[in-house]
């Protein structure tokens, strides 16, 4: 027997008890009506759970709230691993060498630390990118990708409401955030 079958059975039992209490409250005594209220509420929540709507609502609420602490920790760990790969590819140690040098220091083979590069002046900032996509800074990469796709469909120059400049700005914002 599955959990859903059990919950449906319980919901049915509570619906039956609620119906009996309502009839008893009408025919016998109004106090039975007061007892029917909690049974009705439990019946509703069991039905809500059995149909899967409670789970869907909880998932949507969690997505709207943004990433959990565990997800943010995973994102930080991935970012750190990506930085380490970039340092290895550039032939540097990320400023963690024996000399402790950092700014402007060259690693083995004369390669510069990737973090020492100044951002280009004409590039969109991360904050502007989030504003362009209409997201807050806590949005995870999946939310960024979803919002980009939604807006790209609408703003594509070949589309009905297409605008080339807005589409270019949207692409730039996505490039900044997917980084």
Question: What can you tell me about this protein's structure?
Answer:
The protein is mainly alpha-helical and 179 residues long. The chain has three domains: 3-65; 67-117, no CATH class; 119-179, DnaJ domain (Helix Hairpins). The chain is built from seven helices and no strands. It has helices spanning 3-27, 31-50, 53-65, 69-90, 126-133, 141-155, 164-178. Helix 1 runs antiparallel to helix 2 and helix 6 packs antiparallel against helix 7. The protein starts with a helix and ends with a helix. The model is unreliable at 98-105 (pLDDT under 50).
Topology:
Elements: H1 3-27, H2 31-50, H3 53-65, H4 69-90, H5 126-133, H6 141-155, H7 164-178
Helix pairs in contact: 1-2, 5-7, 6-7
Task: Compose a concise summary of this entry.
By secondary structure, the chain is mainly α.
Tally of extended strands? 0
Number of helices: 7
H and E order: HHHHHHH
- List unreliable stretches of 5+ residues: 98-105
Distance between the termini: 48 Å
**Structural Rg:** 29 Å
Overall tally of domains: 3
- Rough outline: elongated
Structural class: mainly alpha
| Biggest sheet descriptor | none
**Mean model confidence by pLDDT:** 78
Helix content: 55-70%
Strand proportion: under 5%
């Amino acid at each position: 027997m599955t959990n859903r079958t059990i919950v449906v059975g319980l919901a049915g039992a509570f619906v039956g008890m609620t119906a009996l209490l309502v009839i008893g409250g009408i025919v016998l005594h109004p106090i039975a009506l007061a007892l029917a209220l909690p049974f009705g509420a439990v019946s509703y929540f069991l039905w809500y759970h059995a149909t899967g709507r409670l789970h869907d609502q909880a998932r949507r609420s969690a997505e709207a709230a943004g990433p959990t602490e565990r997800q943010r920790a995973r994102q930080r760990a991935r970012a750190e691993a990506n930085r380490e790969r970039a340092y290895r590819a550039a032939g540097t140690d990320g400023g963690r060498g024996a000399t402790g040098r950092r700014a402007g220091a060259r690693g083995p083979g004369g390669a510069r630390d990737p973090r020492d590069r100044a951002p280009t002046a004409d590039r969109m900032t991360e904050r502007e990118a989030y504003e362009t996509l209409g997201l807050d800074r806590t949005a995870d990469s999946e939310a960024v990708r979803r919002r980009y796709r939604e807006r790209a469909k609408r703003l594509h120059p070949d589309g009905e409401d297409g605008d080339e400049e807005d589409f270019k700005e949207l692409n730039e914002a996505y490039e900044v955030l997917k980084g």
